[in-house]
UniProtKB/TrEMBL annotation:
Residues 1-27, 47-70 are annotated as: Disordered. InterPro entries: PGBD (IPR029526). It comes from the Eukaryota. Residues 50-70 have a biased composition (Polar residues). The gene is LOC113506667. This is PiggyBac transposable element-derived protein 3-like. Residues 16-27 have a biased composition (Acidic residues). Residues 143-346, 348-406 form the PiggyBac transposable element-derived protein domain.
């Protein structure tokens, strides 16, 4: 007659430890699970069916007779006579980091795991689309042909119309209306003065051959040049809104030229994949509410211009002259607001989804090699300042006009 096992026999067979201490490099989780399961079976024999169904596979070998009827504790234990204790799994960690990852993974679901992301975007991806002109000119085309791509006939008509209108409003004596050809000559003289610098304007018309510049003196008399410079205008002063008007614009006197040239800059070149947005300064030391002080800039006092330029060539795509706080706060801040406004044309990209469809998603603006591409505006300033046409003037907006001619 077989002898039934009692609780002490089962405990000795499974070698139940006296305490629950664990070694730092060993795991007794499996053995404790078996002992606890058996103890619960001994204490609650009526629920043995549910416990065995939820136990590990090596315990789910109970005959149907035990699961279908409420057997006694001794009869149930006899079915477990042949069970062997599960050997504990020993995990040896080679480093404290691996031990920490192992401890954390025990508490998580097996379907989740830590994956260290090591891939990085290829910087060459941002150089795939280079700057290209929209309209190609003949290689033998004169520089004036390239200049007129930006200073179009519409720009010349604006200058001619507003200059003659201002002269008429002011009743200037002995005024001869200007035309497109004369304004072209006037701008050409300014450009020559930019790379042939003399201490005073009158020296370009001097009788001294050491100062005289025939390309200037033979095109226009000095009195006519000064008269055009004094009368030059870009907008109708009589139509300017008052400061109390909601349409008041601090840049009203030069706003038409700003709009026309902004459109020309965008239309004459394709956007490259590498652009930079930064501040540029227009030198001005006179009195103006637009004047800013930037102690870290080479030009510390003047007008601040936000520029969006190609990183490699310095080509100016878009710009905005800073006129001060608008009164409407922005959540992102001034810098983020300017970046979003100037890069509005390139804020989305087409991304291929898993199902093969293409969807427009936001383009990450800051995933770039910053140190490599941040110098686009600095490059623009360098090229612009090589032969700058700017001259001293008491009229605040003339400095901006010279800046746009240089740009």
């Amino acid at each position: 007659m077989p002898r039934y096992l009692n609780e002490n026999d089962i405990g000795q067979m499974l070698d139940i430890p006296d305490d629950g201490s664990e070694d730092g490099f060993e795991s007794d989780e499996a053995e404790e699970f078996n002992v606890n399961t058996i103890q619960r079976l001994l204490e609650a024999p009526d629920d043995s069916s549910d416990l065995l169904q939820n136990s590990p596979t090596h315990l789910n070998t109970t005959p149907n007779s035990c699961s279908e009827s409420g057997t006694s504790t001794i009869a149930l234990c006899s079915q477990l006579d042949n069970l062997q204790p599960v050997k504990p799994l020993i995990v040896q960690s080679s480093s404290p980091l691996e031990q920490e990852l192992t401890d954390e993974s025990e508490c998580e679901d097996e379907s989740w795991g830590k994956v260290f992301w090591t891939s990085r975007p290829d910087p060459d991806e941002f150089d795939k689309v280079t700057i290209k002109p929209r309209y190609l000119l003949n290689r033998r085309a004169r520089p004036v042909a390239h200049f007129k791509k930006f200073f179009s006939d519409e720009v010349f008509d604006l200058i001619v119309t507003q200059t003659n209108l201002y002269a008429e409003q002011q009743n200037i004596k002995n005024w001869q209306p200007v035309d497109t050809q004369e304004i072209s000559a006037f701008l050409g003289i300014l450009i020559i003065m930019g790379y042939h610098i003399l201490p005073h304007i009158d020296l370009y018309w001097s009788s001294d051959p050491g100062f005289r510049v025939n390309e200037i003196a033979e095109v226009m008399p000095v009195k006519r040049f000064k008269k055009i410079l004094e009368t030059l205008h870009l907008n109708d002063n009589n139509q300017q809104p008052s400061r109390e008007d909601v349409n008041f614009d601090k840049l009203y006197k030069i706003r038409p030229l700003i709009s026309l040239l902004s459109q020309s800059f965008e239309n004459n070149a394709f956007n490259s994949s590498s652009q930079s947005i930064d501040e540029s300064m227009i030198l001005f030391k006179g009195r103006s509410s637009l004047k800013q002080y930037m102690p870290l800039k080479p030009i510390k006092r003047g007008y601040k211009v936000w520029c969006c330029c190609d990183s490699s060539t310095g080509y100016l795509y878009n710009y905005e002259i800073y006129t001060g706080k608008t009164g409407q706060g922005t959540e992102e801040g001034l810098g983020a607001n300017v970046v979003k406004k100037l890069s509005m044309e390139v804020t989305t990209v087409q991304r291929t989804q898993k199902n093969g469809t293409r969807e427009a998603v936001s383009c990450p603006m800051v995933v770039k090699e910053y140190t490599k591409r941040m110098g686009g505006v600095d490059r623009f300033d360098q090229v612009k300042g090589t032969y700058a046409v700017g001259r001293r003037s008491k009229r605040w907006w003339l400095r901006i006009f010279y800046f746009l001619v240089d740009a």
